[in-house]
Specification:
InterPro entries: Beta-lactam/transpept, Beta-lactam/transpept-like, PASTA_dom, PBP_dimer, PBP_dimer_sf, PCN-bd_Tpept. It catalyses: Preferential cleavage: (Ac)2-L-Lys-D-Ala-|-D-Ala. Also transpeptidation of peptidyl-alanyl moieties that are N-acyl substituents of D-alanine. By secondary structure, this protein is α+β, with helices and mostly antiparallel strands. The chain is 31% helix and 23% strand. Strands 4, 5, 6, 7, 12, 20 and 21 form a 7-stranded mixed β-sheet that branches. It has a 5-stranded antiparallel β-sheet with strand order 14-13-25-24-23, with helices on both faces. A hairpin with a 6-residue loop joins strand 13 and strand 14.
């Protein structure tokens, strides 16, 4: 009995102890539960965050980098979808490369890869147990059309990954202005792409939602959306009609003359807007690995300008009242501080001539005398400052260079007066020339019209024309324009190659020597110069300024440096004026003639009726399309036409084929382009020799066509080079 009590007592103690242990464990567990519930943490890990991470999916909403547009809203740099091709080799996957050799044979031509190399890559990757492989540079950044062609092959194991890339649809179009980014838009490298990178960059957004264990979105999930912010869009002042024509003629001159470099700028002198800007060597931003020249010479290069500088020297003298154009002086040479300065015709000069004639002939002696004996060195530099040659223009392009004006004494003043010794930039010359074209008001050049914030579609920056100085009066500007006209039209002028009948082109030629990098002095030899022309038109109210410079073209012994320069200038000036609806005076007279055949309004008449009514009038009738009704005509109604001229009638047919333009006149091509809505560019004068769109090709409105014209006989007059002579 006693032993039973002892045994029961021990059992009770054990039960109490066990209960105590259970209670302690329960309290600990309860406390842990309360702790976890209140803190929501285990070992420093946030349970809510872990749960959200496991059951919540977050996806990136990619923003779009800002687009660069021309003045009409056509994109010149934009973000587009591209594709990367890759191959899956794992046999456990639903589709994999089964036949390496056959796949390589079909795929290799589409990704610019050797067939054997591609087959070897497949085989090696499979042997190494790789799941998938990338297929090299040629398989990246493919267009939708390229991917469609590959998909049509229906190759096992070939997949596509969609990505964004930067694309430049107009190829070499103003490439140094626009610059480029890496294809994935990861880093901007040059041009506007670099200088405005911060505002064109996009900010990615995100979307978060809850999902089930299989990854499907839950019903009514709590979505969290952070909207992406697209980059700002930039609209340029560049006119694609003018810029495209400029690129075409620059390419033609580059192929024909192989110069070291070329520069061309087209501007509106009323506003300072840059309508066109191009350099050679150029590059295609879509293939930036091939770039050889990173400089936008138009703004980042300074050099001795040559005789184009003389227009500003003369303007200063006229404004100060010390210029007498009829005063005689002895041309040939002048001694300045024991240094002999000579005229460009080997210092022979032209005897005793007037200062006006000296300007037409581009006499260095005339400019030296004008500055040293009449205007004074201090006044010269004062006016160069007024014309903006002592500071950057502030154009909205990166890496603008400044001038380097030589001011050490009388020799520097004399040589600077005729464009040697001091170095300036092309854009500085354009800015200064706006004062002459614009009644004395100098306009700041700019190339960005406006910047748009696309998310709210608001204008965050709008450039307006800005007068940055009035270096001369309207009267002085008019007198300088008279002198510039003489350069082109006077029998003594050096600018004969730049004469365009009916357009009143005025301007100043320049032929500058180039410093010899290997010895003292300048490079010598035929064509070893920078040939330039700074001109504007029409004279009475200039609407366009064009500057062209060609550095060391490969010209024949019977050719002058004006050949490549005038090819660019004349083509782009004529194209620009006609594009701006400034017609040649000779055309206006011809179209208003009352003699010969006079057109009627043929629109809405039947094709057969018009053919019958015109009959034997001696007019070359050109019917465009095979429709039954006329919808457009050139010339318009009530215009006089001479025998042999072409009357163009476009019918209501859906398609029109390109006619053979061989032998057509410039005027006929323009009328044809007008009635068809084409954009023509002309090289040369006379009658059509070649055309860029083959006869018989179906054409559409807005297409560009390039025609080359040549006269039946060419009578070339020799042009005297104006290489500066300083007697070094």
């Amino acid at each position: 009995m006693k032993s039973l009590e002892i045994k029961r007592s021990v059992t009770n103690k054990r039960a109490v102890l066990l209960l105590g242990i259970v209670l302690v464990l329960f309290v600990i567990l309860l406390g842990r539960i309360i702790y976890i519930q209140s803190t929501q943490e285990i070992d420093g890990q946030n349970l809510r965050a872990l749960g959200e991470e496991r059951w919540t999916r977050t996806e990136v909403i990619e923003g779009v980098r800002g687009t660069i547009f021309d003045r009409t809203g056509s994109p010149v740099a934009q973000e587009v979808n591209s594709y990367t091709v890759y191959a899956v080799l794992d046999q456990n996957y639903q589709s994999y490369v089964v036949d390496a050799e056959e796949t390589a044979s079909l795929l290799a031509p589409h990704i610019n890869m050797n067939e054997q190399d591609l087959a070897r890559a497949f085989t090696n990757a499979q042997a190494q147990g790789k799941f998938q492989i990338e297929l090299g540079a040629g398989a990246r950044h493919l267009t939708y059309e390229q991917v469609t062609n590959i998909r049509e092959l229906e190759l096992d194991g070939i997949y596509f990954r969609e990505e964004s890339r930067r694309y430049y649809p107009k190829q070499t179009y103003a490439s140094h202005v626009i610059g480029f980014t890496e294809r994935n838009t990861g880093e901007a490298r040059m041009g506007l792409e670099l200088s405005f990178d911060e505002i064109m960059k996009a900010d990615d957004g995100s979307i978060s939602y809850q999902r089930d264990r299989k990854g499907f979105p839950l019903l009514n999930p709590n979505e969290t959306i952070t909207a992406a912010k697209n980059g700002h869009d930039i609209y340029l002042t560049l006119d694609s009609n003018i810029q495209t024509a400029l690129e075409q003629v620059m390419t033609q001159v580059e192929e024909q003359y192989s110069p070291e470099k070329m520069i061309a700028i087209v501007a509106d002198p009323k506003t300072g807007e840059i309508l066109g800007m191009s350099n050679r060597p150029s590059f295609n931003p879509n293939h930036y690995e091939q770039i050889t020249n990173y400089l936008n010479y138009a703004v980042s290069d300074r050099y001795e300008p040559g005789s184009t500088m003389k227009m500003f020297t003369v303007a200063a003298a006229i404004e100060e009242g010390v210029y007498n154009g009829q005063e005689q002086y002895q041309s040939g040479t002048i001694e300045v501080a024991d240094r002999r300065i000579g005229d460009h015709n080997e210092a022979r000069g032209w005897g005793s001539i007037s200062f006006d004639e000296g300007f037409y002939r581009s006499s260095n002696v005339a400019m030296a005398k004008l500055v040293l004996e009449k205007l004074g060195s201090e006044k010269l530099y004062e006016y160069l400052t007024k014309f903006g040659f002592d500071q950057k223009t502030g154009i909205d392009l990166p890496n603008e260079a400044n001038s380097l004006l030589a001011k050490s004494g009388r020799v520097d003043a004399a040589t600077t007066a005729f464009g040697q010794g001091s170095a300036v930039t092309p854009i500085q010359q354009i800015q200064a020339a706006t004062a002459i074209a614009n009644d004395g008001k100098m306009m700041k050049p700019y190339i960005i019209d406006r910047i748009i914030e696309p998310n709210q579609n608001t204008v965050v920056q709008k450039n307006e024309p800005e007068v940055v100085g009035e270096p001369i009066s309207k009267e002085t500007a008019d007198q300088v324009k008279d002198l510039l006209e003489g350069v082109v039209t006077n029998s003594a002028g050096t600018g004969h190659p730049y004469y365009l009948e009916g357009f009143d082109v005025i301007g100043k030629t320049g032929t500058a020597q180039i410093n010899n990098p290997n010895a003292r002095g300048y490079i010598q030899g035929h064509g070893e110069n920078i040939f330039s022309f700074l001109g504007m038109a029409p004279k009475e109210d200039p609407r366009v300024i064009v500057y062209v410079a060609v550095d060391r073209p490969k010209i024949g012994l019977d050719e002058s440096g004006a050949a490549p320069t005038s090819m660019i200038f004349n083509t782009i000036m004529k194209h620009s004026l006609q594009y701006l609806n400034i017609s040649p005076t000779v055309d206006e007279i011809a179209e208003e003639t009352e003699t010969g055949f006079k057109t009627e309004n043929y629109v809405a008449q039947s094709t057969s009726t018009v053919k019958e009514s015109i009959g034997e009038e001696g007019i070359e009738l050109t019917i465009l399309g095979d429709g039954s009704e006329i919808v457009a005509q050139q010339p318009l109604a009530n215009k006089g036409m001479l025998e042999g001229e072409r009357l163009f009638l476009r019918t209501d047919s859906e398609t029109v084929s390109m006619p053979d333009l061989t032998g057509w006149s410039n005027r006929d091509v323009r009328r044809f382009a007008q009635v068809m809505g084409l954009n023509p560019t002309f090289f040369g004068r006379g009658y059509v020799q070649t055309q860029s769109i083959e006869p018989g090709t179906m054409i559409e409105k807005g297409e560009y066509i390039v025609v080359e014209l040549a006269p039946s006989t060419e009578n070339r007059e020799p042009v005297e080079e104006e290489v500066e002579q300083t007697g070094e």
